[in-house]
Amino acid sequence: MSRSPLVCDTTVLLYLGRIGCAHLIPALFAPVYVPELVVLELDMGRLWRPDTFNPREWAWIQVVSVSQDAINALPPNRLGPGERSVIAYARSQYGCVAGLDDLQARRLAEELGLAVVGTLGILLRARPARLIPAVRPLLDALIAEGFRIDADLYQEVLNLAGE
Q1: Which strands form 61-64's sheet, in the order they lie side by side?
Q2: Is 44 within the bounds of a domain?
Q3: Is the CB of residue 63 less than 8 Å from the CB of residue 82?
Q4: 82-120 per-position pLDDT tens digit
Q5: Fewer CB within a 10 Å sphere, N or C end of the chain?
Q6: Is residue 61 a part of any domain in this protein?
Q7: Got the DSSP string for 26-74?
Q8: pLDDT the model gives residue 118
């Protein structure tokens, strides 16, 4: 199976890490890039919750710098620094998928012609790849960890997973 490169935002790493499924990322994507600004956001998260995912602890992650010029070249937006750095980096790497959950960030990335996957999309890719036996328990675990998903999307994900 050929794997696409992925550049990951905070929420994808945070929530897959919290439910013990960060290993799905390198099983589906390679290489995996994490911008320095995303690493900083996760560092800040560890001040409140020490078990917050630390990208520096995983050999499959390449921490990357994103130039301010690349970020400034994005169309005007109200995204956070991590999301902007993910989109800017994905634009600079041929075939790189942007790992984003925020709806505004996903829309901007798609408008710029980028492929996008979020936490739920990773779970949906993991199921047919036989990396997980079922999606429902992981969806429920995400929700228990504070991941927000409305009832319609929850059902749509289960339908797509064949559950």
Answers
A1: 61-64, 29-35, 4-8, 97-99, 116-117
A2: yes
A3: no
A4: 999 999 999 999 999 999 999 999 999 999 999 999 999
A5: N
A6: yes
A7: HHHEEEEEEEHHHHHHHHHHHHH-TTS--GGG-TTEEEE---HHHHHTS
A8: 97
Domain that holds residue 107: 4-132
CA–CA distance, 152 with 106 (Å, rounded to integer): 19
**How is residue 23 written in tokens?**
């290993």
For tokens 């992981």, name the residue.
138
pTM for the full model? 0.93
Among 55, 50, 46, which Cα is nearest to 25's? 55
Indicate whether 75 belongs to any domain.
yes
Q: For residues 109 and 22, give the distance between their C-alpha atoms in angstroms, rounded to a whole number.
A: 23
% helix, strand, coil for the chain, step of 5: 50, 15, 35
Quickly tell me which residue has 């492929």 as its tokens.
115
> Considering its fold, how many domains does the chain have in total?
1
CA distance 40 to 77: 21
Q: What CATH number has the domain bearing residue 77? A: 3.40.50.1010
Q: Beta 97-99 vs 61-64: how paired, if at all?
A: unpaired
Residue 29 placed within a domain: yes
Q: First CA to last CA across the chain, in angstroms?
A: 24
Return the H-helix or E-strand segment holding 8: strand 4-8
